Each structure stands twice: as structure tokens, then as C-alpha cells.
Automatic annotation (TrEMBL):
PANTHER family found in the cross-reference section: HISTONE-LYSINE N-METHYLTRANSFERASE 2C, HL01030P-RELATED
Protein name: [histone H3]-lysine(4) N-methyltransferase
Predominant place of localization: nucleus
GO term, biological process aspect, one: methylation
Source organism of this protein record: Oncorhynchus mykiss
Record bears the keyword Repeat: yes
Length: 347
């Protein structure tokens, strides 16, 4: 990690970003720049691929973000001078900014990655997460090699289920007892104006949560601000697939040693967030949850929404009950939520 960070940015290997910037070939034209970070003999290699219609792709590399972008900024400044447009001052442009390392959302995620505590020269913008300063694990046998292989994730089978379906048209709740019409005067706050709440949540969810290390398991999602009870926080998004496809995909993910992130939407469909999913998939299970998962029926189809079931303070980890089906002792998944009323098992 010593070579993969500076005082202003962390450079994770595998980082990819797409940027739109001025062309080096034509004045007053823009093109796409694909930025990435690779490893070359233990040192970071910064790669920028220039993609412009009508021209061959140009690949540039450098030992620093500034170094590789200087190869672009100088020709850009020349083209702008030739076309008489506003003058560009390359010396004042930072490579970290052009790579996107200093974007707030990117910085939050990068500062939550495992191993960043070794970045001794880096100045954390959002504060060193205290959850990263966890004690070392104790090996009962005295040797890590003799311990059973630790699983890097908790398997989340697609039997994750919601509390029911909330319809924005008829305001009906669908549960195990059937369909119950809710009279207007007793409609709970969380069921009122469902389309409005959904649109507001879609516009504000990035300011509601942030990703960080979790005491419960791996990464977790945290409240970025105080959240009132019965507030839509974030949508559980992914690829909508049928049960048969979900069963095949789950076996494939297990063969690849991937974590399985699936959520059952109804009796026939499953939302698969393993590959193409949002941050909601990192919300951990708790026996004393502060959120609930609801299947909300809108004009565009059913959506899985994570809503607060009580007031949540800023910095508090979001969690909900996975509602796994009960299994026999051989297939039990231990629960690490640490709640007073913890059931010790998730299923």
C-alpha cells in the first residue's frame, strides 16, 4: 500500500473511471477518456485510453496521475490556443481530480476498502473509520494455517423476503393472511403517498447513506444523516430474474466463490444484485433491526424498498431482518448482529 497512495488520494488497483474532456486533436471538441489503475512490478501504473469518433484509440501510461494527464493537457492547451478559445493552464490541474479520485462518492468508498489503514501518508477526508481499528482475530490453535478456512462473505440466499407488498394504487397490504384493504384513516405514515416518497427517495438516497466497514460482517451501509421513522431510505436494485434462473445463477456464483446477493420479490421472481446491484445489498441482518424491507407496487412495476422502522441517528449502521427460512442444524448460518435479543442464528 505504500506506493499506492499519496497525501491526497488512494489508488486502488482495478479502479476504472470514464471522463469527458477536451480533445487533443481538435480544438473546441470533447471526447471520452477511460482512466484506470493497474499494477506493474509492485508499482501503480496509471492508464488513460482516449476514445474519439473518427480516430484510433490512443493509450497513454504514466507513473502518476499527473504524469499521464500532462501528456493530454499540453496538446489540449495547444489546440485551444490555435482555435482561439479560452486558454488552458495545465500546471494548475491535478491528476487526482482528473482521474476522479477526489469525487466525494468515490472517496467515501475508497476510504472504506480493506487495507486502507496502511496508508500512513494519506489524509482521510471523512475520518479514519473506528470500525477499521478492530483487534486481531484469535486463533485457538496458535496458527492461522491450522484454522478452518474463513469465508469472506455471509451467504445471502435468495429467500430474503420482504414484509409484504404496498400498492400505490389501492393501498393494500399483501401478507400471509391475504389481501386486506386499509381504511384511509388508519393508513400508516409509511404507506401514504407512496409514489411521492419513492421519487423523493430516488433523488436523495445518495445523501442518506454511505458505505463503510461493519462490525457485523464485511461492509455495511450507514446513515449519513438523521433519518426519521417510516422514511424510504434506499432501493434494493438488481437484475429481475425468474426462480429457475436464480437457482442456476446461485450455483454458478457458489462455484466462483462469490457472495450471493439475491432478494425474492414475489413467488415467481428474484432480484439478483450479485453482479449488477446497488449499495443496498450491503445492508446486514440484525435481530433488532432499524429498517424493514417492503415490496412496493408502482406503475413501473414492483420495487424493493428499504425503509426505516424507527428514528435512526447519523452514523448508525442500517440493518433489517433477512427473514430466512428455518433450516436444520447442518445448514444454520450464525448471526453476529450483537443485539440483546439476538437469536444466534439467521435461519
Amino acid at each position: 500500500m505504500a506506493a499506492f497512495h499519496s497525501a491526497n488520494a488512494i489508488f486502488p488497483v482495478g479502479y476504472r473511471a470514464s471522463r469527458i474532456y477536451w480533445s487533443t486533436r481538435q480544438g473546441n471538441h470533447r471526447c471520452r477518456y477511460l482512466c484506470s489503475v493497474e499494477e506493474n512490478e509492485g508499482q501503480p501504473e496509471f492508464v488513460v485510453r482516449m476514445i474519439e469518433q473518427g480516430y484510433d484509440d490512443l493509450v497513454l501510461t504514466g507513473a502518476s496521475p499527473k504524469g499521464v494527464w500532462d501528456k493530454i493537457l499540453e496538446p489540449v492547451a495547444d489546440r485551444r490556443n490555435e482555435s482561439g478559445t479560452l486558454k488552458l493552464f495545465p500546471v494548475y490541474l491535478k491528476g487526482e481530480d482528473l482521474f476522479g479520485f477526489t469525487v466525494t462518492a468515490v472517496t467515501r468508498i475508497v476510504e472504506s476498502l480493506p487495507g486502507v489503514e496502511a496508508c500512513d501518508r494519506y489524509t482521510f477526508r471523512f475520518g479514519r473509520n473506528p470500525l477499521m481499528e478492530l483487534p486481531l482475530a484469535i486463533n485457538p490453535t496458535g496458527s492461522a494455517r491450522s484454522e478452518p478456512k474463513a469465508c469472506s462473505h455471509v451467504k445471502r440466499p435468495h429467500t430474503l423476503s420482504s414484509t409484504g407488498i404496498v400498492s400505490s394504487k389501492s393501498m393494500q397490504t399483501v401478507g400471509s393472511v391475504g389481501v386486506v384493504d386499509a381504511p384511509e384513516e388508519v393508513i400508516p405514515k409509511q404507506f401514504a403517498s407512496v409514489p411521492f416518497q419513492y421519487r423523493r427517495m430516488k433523488a436523495e438516497w445518495k445523501s442518506n447513506v454511505y458505505l463503510a466497514r461493519s462490525r457485523i460482517q464485511g461492509l455495511g451501509l450507514y446513515a449519513a444523516r438523521d433519518i426519521e421513522s417510516h422514511t424510504m431510505v434506499i432501493e434494493y436494485i438488481g437484475t429481475l430474474i425468474r426462480n429457475e434462473v436464480a437457482n442456476r445463477m446461485e450455483k454458478m456464483y457458489e462455484s466462483q466463490n462469490r457472495g450471493v446477493y439475491m432478494f425474492r420479490l414475489d413467488s415467481e421472481h428474484v432480484v439478483d444484485a450479485t453482479i449488477t446491484g446497488g449499495p443496498a445489498r450491503y445492508i446486514n441482518h440484525s435481530c433488532a433491526p432499524n429498517c424493514i424491507a417492503e415490496a412496493v407496487s408502482l406503475e413501473r412495476g414492483d420495487k424493493i424498498i428499504i425503509s426505516s422502522c424507527r428514528n435512526i441517528q447519523r452514523g448508525e449502521e442500517l440493518c433489517y431482518d433477512y427473514k430466512f427460512d428455518l433450516e436444520d442444524d447442518q445448514h444454520k448460518i450464525p448471526c453476529h448482529c450483537g443485539a440483546v435479543n439476538c437469536r444466534k442464528w439467521m435461519n
